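Intended use. Records such as the Phage terminase large subunit GpA ATPase domain-containing protein entry shown here are meant for training and evaluating sequence-to-structure methods. They are not intended to support clinical decisions.
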Amino acid sequence: MVDMASRKVASVDCSYWTHLNQIRLAHGGVFSFKDREYQQEPLSSKAPNICYMKATGGGFSEIEILKTLHGMIHGRYPQGALYMFPTNDDVQDFSKSRFNPLILYNPKAIGKYVKSVGKGVDSAKLKRVGKSNLYLRGARLDPSDEGDGAKKSTKLTGIQVDRIVPDEVDQMDPEAIAKAKGRMGSAAVDGIKGNREAAYVANPSDEDRGIDLYWQGSDQRQWFRFCDRCQTLTCAELEFQNAPEKTVGFHPDGKGFIKCRKCGYPIGIPGEWIAQRPENKKMVGYQWSHLTSAYWDPAEILERFNNPPEGNLGDVYRLDLGLPYSSREDKLRKADVLSCCGYEIMPAYHKGPCAAGVDIGRTKHVLIGTRTGTDKYEIIKAEAIPPGDEKWQRLHDLFRRYNVKSAVIDLRPYEDKAREFQKKERKTRIYLCEYTDSALLDASYNDKTGIVKVYR
């Protein structure tokens, strides 16, 4: 029998509520902090802004699911909450594999508070929990009807929430997240007007984008473990970044362990989160890697770091270490751009052959370049074509003046005009650019359709 005092504590502390009710997760097991002590602080946290830059499998998505359901059941979010995913397919998958099992496996703690929605309503995208709504939405944006390059999301229209959780932010258009924030204009978390919550979750992709930008603006909490021998605190993630070989020790059977940075003694997972940038008070940030996982051998992680599978070091950084990664070839740095600049005036024409890239909006931004040697290229023309009826003709004239033989042009938002231009420009091989949701896919050219698919 649970006493009233315990129920009262559980109503305000999600961590205690989860323990008290022995919440069963989607895989059927009971939620536990055993080997996952690092989950307790974020599960109890009521910080208005939180970000998780993490490797795979740390359970941080489950943390935010539980916090969302707990808050709705106990009236913290009177309007409701919005959970966002990169695509609508992700919404369906997540609803069926994560949310629905929680409702099914926990009929007393969760299920009895979930009410059926009306007929004709997709229950995978809308759930009534307690007295508020839980919206599950894809983050894909469509061109606006105005044809001005703006974007819209009909999935976010007409909803008001107190809390948003964009899950896998690196696979989302930042504009979609901005629109989601706009849905919290009347937020009142805990009944306090103006109180709102946002939690950002992702495996990082490239440096200086997505979750890495949120992390940079956070207080940057790292997990420090206790050494039973010398009482020193060690952060495996920070030590590994500085000296991988000195961070991992080996048992006689070849299995690895994390070494105390002072005495070298094997240290376990128990520890505490310590902010590295406590002056950043607007965002709480957590960074986690497989080095702090009971399911991964540190020796294996070190081996993968030294000898990346398929030569893909980026995946080791992003998926194992929970860190963003941009190779020198993939990242455009300011110093690299300035080093390419000279004092020459842009020529009025060029004999070519040249290549061009065109960013389409109300104003067309055009870059034209040519090959100057083996793996050497030069930008010879940069021009912005202002709005007007003759802008496609002006683009044609540029291509002829600079003998452009190959070009990539945005497919949207003016798809019909772009396809018409592609068809007419017989002297230029044009690919229309379409964007994918995955940072892990290389550019894919289709000569039959004239489409190139790339990650933005």
